[in-house]
């Protein structure tokens, strides 16, 4: 089994839930992203999503989209993100999952998706979230991730149903990414959690994979609300925003993740 499977298996054995912060690679800088990975682990994160900057993010709201455009303006590329992950991998046991657009993967040059996934895994990534890949076009991604013992997740929205619901679930590896709401990433003063228990139950009828829930989660209370039903809470925009405003982004990340982790108790 890969690292993501091991992490969730250990958490389940201990009857614990996971916190999964999202970092935008290269925001504010790649070195600060590196330091934030270590800080988030120290604060209680089990798995960290690393967003690979893309000029036209599909599901990201203004905070993450702005961070990605800033990182691209600083010359951040997938290869530089791989180098950063490789430099930190020996210092951390936290799970590292790349949030990456389908477009980036298939523009990798010789080898396409296979080359991208292999290089990312060699750098130290443990899995992938593909937010914009159609399930019917994901066979190669699934195959290569299986060969690499890497997790693979696609987004399941509250509106995903019928055969597509089953098809997306059948292609997930490591964990299922369940959106808490329809729309784009961002913070919310209250979580639109009506129906969350039912959506989690519907997934559990078809899959025994852990369920990670994201979109709009920005407080310890919302983390607590989500993990009543799901196995993990994902927090992105609120963390990226705090890091962007801080003089010491890694320290700000550690403080906020430590606060969010109180919602796991």
Neighbour order of strands in the largest sheet: 5-4-3-2-1-9-8-7-6
Mean pLDDT: 91
Instruction: Give the count of structural domains.
Output: 1
| CATH topology group | TIM Barrel
CATH superfamily: Aldolase class I
Could you please describe the fold and organization of this structure?
It is a single chain. Helix 2 (30-43) links the parallel strand 1 (18-24) and strand 2. The protein is built from twelve helices and nine strands. The chain is globular and about 45 Å long. It is of the alpha/beta class and 265 residues long. The protein starts with a helix and ends with a helix. It has helices spanning 3-13, 30-43, 62-73, 78-89, 102-106, 112-123, 139-147, 162-171, 196-206, 220-227, 237-245, 249-261; strands at residues 18-24, 47-51, 95-99, 127-129, 151-153, 155-156, 176-179, 211-214, 232-235. It has a nine-stranded parallel β-sheet with strand order 5-4-3-2-1-9-8-7-6, sandwiched between helices. The protein has a single domain (3-11, 18-264), classed as Aldolase class I (TIM Barrel, Alpha-Beta Barrel), CATH 3.20.20.
